[in-house]
Each structure stands twice: as structure tokens, then as C-alpha cells.
Specification:
Keywords: FAD, Flavoprotein, Monooxygenase, NAD, Oxidoreductase, Purine metabolism. The protein is of the alpha/beta class. It is 37% helix and 26% strand.
């Protein structure tokens, strides 16, 4: 059996690895000529790590992951510690340590494990046909390929999604802009093994350790959609947005390299429950584009890959039947994660100022149990539980 995967991101490559493990021939097509991951790093929570472990990548992902032992929230203006606690209870309950990982390194690891020689770059999908027996993908350069199954893992701007749904989907602006990148760990800013987040005014500044002695950092600022951006002026923009904030935040701004700092307007898509049409299925952001507010976007894509492979391996009534079972297994959970991230986004970024003020007050009385319960509620109920 042969599968075509559209999209060589983390979802597409992990799906390719998963399908190969059950004996499928797989070919991946990617529209860009050079893969440049969107964002500097990703939080791979315990459910996502378990999926990678299941795919035989336990050693590889552990080598890329940062050691995140504690978590703390800091008042961004005063520098006061609002709460600080160990993540060990979360690790023990989940059964797996989470890993913050540099995106480019994770992407490269998946590419190596899948096989670069079986990824065609510069292949833009322009059409597809499903005759009930095979699926044919047509590309902009006039080439085509035929397989038993086609997976649309082509991201938030998916070309495959409108084919599956029968209509276009509208992306919803979440109300904030995220700047992110990597810097060398500096313990005058935050402890080396702690996820540290400064909060205030509906804004966030966060640092997580990744491998290689680096912090993954991000700044969140509520802003209107579509503002002009000048990468060279990144420091000045952040200094203005975080004027009056505590010294560690100012030191972080001094450390960043504007040319290597990403600026991303944050969107999501209203959840939907139709992920398959005949021999075509969606996976990853093409199926459940979410905000990053609970760190589950990539993890959900890894769950999709494992669930897809299990459905195809264990059900024998045909590909269309197996895909429907995959859809049934995944859509409710994925939709729940999208909506949970949206709700967290609204509180974190002061869409309701009273709710955000109440959250800040809760953080000052937090012993870690409620925060870890919230994280665990996203981790649990995954495809490998």
C-alpha cells in the first residue's frame, strides 16, 4: 500500500514514519524549496513525547529536549515571584517528562528518520482526484503521483482542507502577536531548568530551556491584526511594549538577535469534525489549527499520526472505513484542545480584563496543583492512554 503525504512539517513527517512502521510505502511532497520551521521552539508535552517514543524516537527526542524541572510565574512589573513549584508530580502522573525542543532540530531529526530522499521539495499541490480505488495528486510543475491514500498535512493554509470540507475555512485572529527565538541561558534572567513566565498588562514573557544551553523565549503582546513590522526594529518595539517591566525582561530584550527573532500573528480556526473524504484525510494544523496557549498544537499532530497508523493497521474493511475510524477517534479531542487554548488565550491576553486580573490574583496563591491539573487535563485522554 502507498500513501502520499502533502506537507513535510512535523505532522507530515511523523505520519510518514508511523505509516512506514506498519509497512506502507510513503512519499512526502512539500511546496517550499527550503524548509524553515515557523517558530524557534515547541513544547512537546508528555503526550507528544509518548507518541514519538511509540514511533521509535525515544532516544532522539530526549537528546533534543531541555530539562524543565520547575515552573514559575513572575509579576512582570515588580519582579515579584507569584508562584514557583516543581513539575515532578506532573511527570510522575503523566509517566513521561515533557521536552521543550528547538523546532529546526526536531524538524531535522524527523526528516532524517523518515529519509530526505523520499521528500520532494518545491512541489505545490494544485489538484487531486479520488476515483474510489486510488488518489492522484497533481502538482504545479505538471507532475503527478498516485497512491492508495492521500494525507493533507499541509498546515494552517491547507490546500487539501477545502477538498475535504467542500468549502474554505476562515482563520480567526486571536488578538495578539508573538515574538520568539533562542538565546544562551543566562541565570541572571531565569533559572536554567525552569519554565519562567513574566505576566502583566495582558502580556507575557516566557523562557523554557532547550538542549544546547539555550532558552526558548517568547513575548506576547495584544495588538491589532495586520500592523506593519520591521525586523530590524524588534528590540525597540519590545522595549516600548515592555517599558517599566522588571530588569530580567529588559536584559532578555538586550540579548535577543532581531535577525533571528520571529514575529507571528496568532490565529486559529473554528473546530470542525469532517477530516476525511473517501481516501483523503487531514492531519495536524490542516485539521485543527490552534493557538499555542496550551502548547498542544504539535502534540496533537503527533497523536494524529499514531492514531492514523493504528486505524490503518487494525481495521480491515478498507481504507475509507479506517479513515472514518481515525476521524471518529480524533476530532472531539482535537476540537477540545483548540477551544481550551482559545479560552486560555482570552484570559492570558486580557480580552476580559477582570478575568485576567482574577487570574493574576490566583497565581499569587498558587501552590502548583491547579496549574499542573490544567496541564494534565490536556495531556490525558490522548491516543496512547
Amino acid at each position: 500500500m502507498k500513501a502520499i503525504i502533502i506537507g513535510a512539517g512535523m505532522g507530515g513527517l511523523s505520519a510518514g514514519i508511523a505509516l512506514r512502521r506498519i509497512g506502507w510505502e510513503v512519499r512526502v511532497y512539500e511546496k517550499v524549496r527550503e524548509i524553515r520551521p515557523v517558530g524557534a521552539a515547541i513544547s512537546v508535552w508528555s503526550n507528544g513525547v509518548k507518541c514519538l517514543n511509540y514511533l521509535g524516537l525515544e532516544r532522539q527526542v530526549a537528546a533534543l529536549g531541555g530539562m524543565m524541572e520547575d515552573m514559575a510565574y513572575i509579576d512582570g512589573l515588580s519582579g515579584e515571584t507569584m508562584c514557583q513549584f516543581s513539575l515532578d508530580p506532573l511527570v510522575k502522573q503523566a509517566g513521561q517528562r515533557p521536552y521543550p525542543v528547538a523546532r529546526a532540530e526536531l524538524q531535522d531529526m524527523l526528516m532524517v528518520e523518515f529519509g530526505r530522499e523520499d521528500v520532494t521539495l518545491g512541489a505545490k499541490l494544485v489538484g487531486l482526484e479520488d476515483d474510489g480505488t486510488t488518489v492522484t495528486a497533481h502538482f504545479e510543475d505538471g507532475s503527478s503521483d498516485t497512491a492508495d491514500l492521500l494525507i493533507g498535512a499541509d498546515g494552517a493554509h491547507s490546500v487539501v482542507r477545502p477538498y475535504v470540507l467542500g468549502h474554505e475555512s476562515t482563520r480567526r485572529y486571536a488578538g495578539y502577536v508573538n515574538w520568539n527565538g533562542l538565546v544562551a541561558i543566562d541565570e541572571s534572567i531565569a533559572p536554567a531548568r525552569q519554565w519562567t513566565t513574566f505576566v502583566g498588562e495582558g502580556k507575557r514573557v516566557s523562557m523554557m530551556p532547550v538542549a544546547g544551553g539555550r532558552f526558548y523565549f517568547f513575548f506576547d503582546v495584544p495588538l491589532p491584526e495586520g500592523l506593519a513590522a520591521d525586523r530590524a526594529a524588534t528590540r525597540e518595539t519590545l522595549r516600548a511594549a515592555f517599558a517599566g517591566w522588571a530588569d530580567p525582561v529588559q536584559r532578555l530584550i538586550d540579548l535577543i538577535e532581531p535577525e533571528r527573532t520571529n514575529r507571528v500573528e496568532i490565529f486559529d480556526i473554528e473546530p470542525f469534525h469532517t477530516w476525511t473524504r473517501g481516501r483523503v484525510a487531514l492531519l495536524g494544523d490542516a485539521a485543527h489549527n490552534t493557538t499555542p496557549d496550551i502548547g498542544q498544537g504539535g502534540c496533537a499532530a503527533f497523536e494524529d499520526s499514531v492514531a492514523l497508523a493504528i486505524a490503518l493497521q487494525t481495521n480491515t474493511l478498507g481504507i475509507e472505513d479506517a479513515l472514518k475510524r481515525y476521524e471518529k477517534k480524533r476530532t472531539t479531542r482535537a476540537a477540545g484542545l483548540v477551544l481550551k487554548a482559545r479560552r486560555r488565550c482570552e484570559v492570558t491576553h486580557a480580552l476580559d480584563p477582570a478575568a485576567t486580573a482574577a487570574w493574576y490574583d490566583e497565581l499569587r496563591h498558587e501552590d502548583g496543583s491547579r496549574i499542573m491539573h490544567g496541564i494534565l487535563s490536556s495531556i490525558e485522554g490522548n491516543v496512547l492512554d
